[in-house]
Write a structure and sequence with these properties.
This protein is α/β, with parallel strands linked by helices. The protein contains four helices and nine strands, in the order ββββαβαααββββ. The chain has one domain: 3-Layer(aba) Sandwich (Rossmann fold), CATH 3.40.50.150.
Length: 223
């Protein structure tokens, strides 16, 4: 039972726009989940090139110069489709791809690698893939901390496996820097590096903190 006598029930939910997060009040003093409002990154003043696309996969928040691909239609969605099938985009047609808390929803057996290969295909030479996923290694270390109680551990488990509120809200892989680097290499990317934050979109899952700890693995990969 929780401290107030209720059964431990923690539902945490983080989609790509980070607007749906529910935390039981009795763990709020432990989990300081902070989604920082980040100022939009200064974009190039060049006019949009109709042959060049900056693609935000799984996003909902519009930003000048970017197009949104989402599996569900929405008022700001430019392309409706599954990130595992990017056939609607020609080879070498995208300059930048952004995918925040998307890849953890893909099976690690075949689908994750094939999707990364597809992002590599549609990127132009020198194009950038920016990835943010829950950092499985950090979350495991937090889960094993001896000071945590059952409700707190349940919350971390929820971050690892997803909110599971609809068919698209299940996580199928836990990614660490080592694992993700291996996938990127096999997908054909020439280089990659870990970064702290991207600072491109507001209310973004890449900036979520539990306590004072960032829980996302943020990586930039170059074709």
């Amino acid at each position: 039972m929780g401290r107030d006598g209720r059964d431990a029930e923690v539902v945490g939910r983080c989609r790509s726009d980070c607007r749906h997060v529910v935390i039981e009040p009795y763990i709020a003093d432990f989990v300081c989940l902070e989604v920082r409002s980040i100022k939009e990154k200064n974009m190039s003043t060049e006019k949009d090139n109709p042959e060049t696309i900056r693609l935000n996969i799984g996003g909902t928040t519009p930003l000048k110069g970017w197009k949104i691909l989402n599996i569900q239609p929405g008022p700001d969605v430019d392309f409706v489709g599954d990130c595992t099938d990017l056939s609607q985009f020609p080879d070498n047609s995208v300059s930048e791809i952004y995918a925040s808390h998307v890849l953890e929803h893909l099976s690690y057996v075949h689908v994750l690698l094939s999707t990364l290969k597809e992002t590599h295909r549609i990127l132009k030479a020198g194009g950038i893939l920016r990835i943010s996923v829950p950092d499985f290694e950090i979350l495991c270390k937090m889960f094993l901390h001896p000071s945590l109680n059952i409700e707190q551990r349940f919350f971390i488990m929820n971050v690892v496996f997803g909110g599971q509120q609809d068919p698209h809200d299940f996580h199928k892989v836990g990614l660490t820097q080592e694992f993700l680097s291996s996938y990127l290499q096999r997908a054909g990317f020439s280089s990659w590096r870990r970064v702290s934050e991207f600072r491109i979109f507001t209310n973004d899952c890449s900036t979520i903190k539990l306590g004072n700890q960032l829980i996302s693995l943020n990586v930039e990969a170059i074709k």
